[in-house]
Amino acid sequence: MVEILGKSRTAVLPLAVVGLVLSLFPIVYLHVASVGELSPISHTISDYIFVDNGSGLLAVTALSLAAASVGLLVALVRSGLPRRGPVAVLIGLWAAGLTVATVFPTDPSGAPTSFSGAVHRYAGAVMFASLPLAGWLISRTFIASTTVRRFSVAAGVTSLAFMVSHVAVVYPGSGAVVLGLFERILFALLYCLLFAVASAVLRREVSS
């Protein structure tokens, strides 16, 4: 009976990892397909909605990533994480931010900020702040993982750099526009963080 319960507790974890992996395919395709059309240095990932099939593919990535993150949260809770604690709230905000940013797309470069563009921007700020902090709290209060902690700190620093890089967009001529580069580094670190958390949960379940 104990063995059956253990399997049921961890059944959601492989699904979350599969969701993380599958969410990568559309965004990688968009990067390859838009070479010469969008700059990975100056254009954000959200700008892929303006290329052929970009809106749908980007939505698949964002919503798959949100669903996988919720699945990972379920795995964390089944491993003993408090259901109503700050980590659950922060991961929920991350997933919600991804969803809201998908429903409210960004504005074209140089266009005035619309209601949708403003909501998209604030949703991005919430999600990019939430996940690094959630990872740091997991490593400090739930699963002692140096890897999770390092990716959390690196993602937090890069998230701050991404926010600061918007200055060159808001005030043209104040510096090089590199927010696309920082955002891509940030997403790479956030993916690594999510995979690191999944690995830490698996190790915890195996050892229990």
UniProtKB/TrEMBL annotation:
Transmembrane segments: 12-34, 54-75, 87-106, 118-139, 151-173, 185-202
Keywords: Membrane, Transmembrane, Transmembrane helix
Record keyword Transmembrane helix present: yes
InterPro entries for this protein: DUF998 (IPR009339)
Highest taxon above the source species: Bacteria
Keyword field contains Transcription: no
Designated name of the protein: DUF998 domain-containing protein
Biological source species: Saccharothrix ecbatanensis
Lineage: Bacteria, Bacillati, Actinomycetota, Actinomycetes, Pseudonocardiales
